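To: structure desk
From: M.T.
Subject: fold request, one chain
Message: Could you run this one when you get a chance? Sequence is below, nothing fancy, just the single chain.
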Amino acid sequence: MAIDIGISAKDRRKISEGLAKLLADNYSLYLKTHAFHWNVTGPMFNSLHVMFETQYNELWLANDQIAERIRSLDVFAPGSYSQFAKLTSIKEESGVPDWKDMVQQLVDGHETAARTGRAVFKLADAADDQPTADLITQRLEAHEKTAWMLRSLLK
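Reply: Done. Structure tokens follow.
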């Protein structure tokens, strides 16, 4: 059945491609945050362990929202590690850095996701796609607030 929601197929495809990058960034950030939750050590252990858990849970729920928006635009959402690896701008961490480097990497990751989101917002706004613009606004708020909170630990 054809979709007719007032957004052209071309615009839906472009927006979905941007959302796929945001999903990949968000999912990669989720994985990194969860791994840091498991592996953090040092004097900030308890605080960071709890903070990272709150953050990875928020990211996990956002993954579903982003993927479902892609599907609402009648495009299939990426869902494999290999797809995410090709799409993400988040740098992978294969080791276990100290807590300060963990925090810095998460700041960088949230800022990266915010930049990705801003690029998608422009596409959504140009196509008069308010639901995507609203979703992106919510993601920007979450990524920027989390980056601020993490950045505050490094001062």
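Reply (cont.): Helices lie at 9-39, 45-72, 81-87, 99-126, 130-153. Let me know if you need anything else for the meeting.
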